[in-house]
Amino acid sequence: MAHLKSQTGLFLLACGLSGGLALSGLRPGQDQDVRLDQSSQSGQASLDPFRRQEAQQDCWDIPADKLANLTRSELDLLPHICWKPELEASLQAPLPRRGIPEGLDCDQTQWCDENGYCSTICKRGSVRIEPWLKNAIKTQMTLTKRQPYCYSTVLGSHNSAISLADGYGNLDPYFQQYFKWIKWVSSDAKFETDNQILSLTDQLNLGLRNVELDTHWVQGSLRIAHCGGLHSDFDILIQSINVIAKLLGHPIQWDTETVGCDPSLSSIPVLEQRLLHDALSEVRAWLDSPENAGEFLVIYFDDQIDLQAWGVVSTLLTEILSLYPAEQIFTPADLLVAGGVWPSMDQLVAAGKRVSFTSGTDYGTAMAPIIFDRSQICGWVEPSLEQLLGEPTCAEAGGYAHGGKTLSGQIFRTISCELYYGPFNCNFYWQSDNQPLLDELTLPGVSRCGLNVPCPDRVTPMRVASSMWSWAEGHPTSLPPQSGTSQHPSQHPTQPAATNRASSSSQSTPTGAVISWVAHGLRQLWQHAWPPAAAQMLEADNAGGGCAALSASDGRWREVSCDAGLPSACWLANSTWSVAAVPRGACPQGSGTRVPAHAKENTALQAAVRTANKDAAFLPIQGPTWAIP
Ligand SMILES: *[C@@H]1O[C@H](CO)[C@@H](O)[C@H](O)[C@H]1NC(C)=O
Ligand SMILES: *[C@@H]1O[C@H](CO)[C@@H](O)[C@H](O)[C@H]1NC(C)=O
């Protein structure tokens, strides 16, 4: 009995539900869309012109038998819903959610929820990493583990455990389909609630050493859960989605019945959100693996004051201690014994310490036996990416506009977020993008500037490769024997074309900061092409020679012939570089050979090579071991 409704019909329906009184103040001639807005009580008052535009569509009467089962509050949401029975058939086909991006090499498996909705994901620990990248990660870890912890640089990830590999965001494509029935959401809006796609194990295998666990008290247990504050527009979206699912007779619901997490920001049934214990066990197993015996991690609980409100801070400590022997944890008391000075990761591991814990919320003495307040870890602060002052000056001055220089003894951790909740971005801004991002375009520059802990979303081998500042892709061509595995080049490209990203960014309406970051990315690309293909010439002329040189073009290290006519990188007493035309490995008096100890030293050496008008300079490392002296 459904018949096509006009816009006016919709408007009447809306009025019918929330009472005609809202109309009384309207002047004649005011358009219906405005009246539609004003006629609804539940958050629509804030609807902006974008939404009104998208309301111009044909909607049908919802059959009475379907309406019969709706509650009063569900009926109140009908003004948001555009009933389109003709689309129902196309919905029934199952949509496999593909959690494995193009070019990522791993063993596929499925994650399925209790209702049988599934995602294709990488089996935990199965992501294959190209040998050169594995070696570059190891090289940079070797260097950074020697630095006092406050001068270390490690990759982290944002909301590390909110991963599709564990089902977070599993239902996104199903819910996204319901956008076709919501008036003010464009049907191609993205619904992406998984920050990560790989397991914690794979992230750690990729060299991440700063793990963020979103920890909340949910249904009587500490669970990994992405919980937000109140977002009234988002709540209306979620409630509308649930009404549509009910009208369509689908078993899925966006589960909001959580304690301490209402609503959950991930599309996963509440009770299928993994226990914190499970996530901590996964990390523990990784630390226990013999090849990781020399590794030290920081585990960061992104939590809220609710843990204290629920009186479960002690539960958090108990769970930690049930999995991690106390003597392996570097604690606030240990720091006191060390005179308040953080040792290097090498020193920590040598003392039997494997892990430190920190919390986003300071629970004071309740957590003090084990968990640091962030500020106790080298003054840890979390400025946004917009504030980072990047190249070309970062080797000397790089840092944050209002926060100080990178690699000066304070830990800077910077996140970026790629979630979309339909028309809302990660911060619940209406129709905004999430720029700037830590991604393949920006990570090269961010890493070169010595940001301690960049934490991107969607960590993949490609993304990690883009954060490397030491060995160039494919170098050294003869890998050290211990890095094992095959040396066959991957059949997949490791660097997705950055230009694609640049052009897609330009379609949005970027802020000044975004423009500067896009420009920054383009400058990067340009820099890589100048001096004219020096890196390629270096490779062609000197391929596979058993020695290493830093290229002026991009600051990356390449294997070259030991007989190449190149100068050497020499380190002066005043902590600057000179590029000396001396026999390889022999530096002039008053200077010595040195491998750049961190990214900014590396960037400074690149600048020195350019100033000397050379294509490259020898580094004091050699095959076959490529050991760092
Ligand atoms: C309404 O609810 C009843 C009882 O749960 C169910 O049997 C019936 O199929 C529902 N009707 C519709 C149209 O969903
Ligand atoms: C460091 O020492 C070298 C050689 O003595 C000198 O040329 C250079 O200007 C000095 N740099 C700084 C920043 O002091």
TrEMBL record:
UniProt keyword list: Membrane, Signal, Transmembrane, Transmembrane helix
Principal location class: membrane
Alphabetized PANTHER family for the sequence: MAINTENANCE OF TELOMERE CAPPING PROTEIN 6 (PTHR35518:SF2), MAINTENANCE OF TELOMOERE CAPPING (PTHR35518)
InterPro entries: PLC-like_Pdiesterase_TIM-brl, Telomere_Capping_Maintenance
Residue span of region Disordered: 473-510
Biological processes, Gene Ontology terms: lipid metabolic process
Subcellular location, record wording: Membrane
Protein known as: Uncharacterized protein
Polar residues compositional bias, start-end: 480-510
GO MF: phosphoric diester hydrolase activity
Gene Ontology CC: one annotated term: membrane
Signal peptide boundaries: 1-22
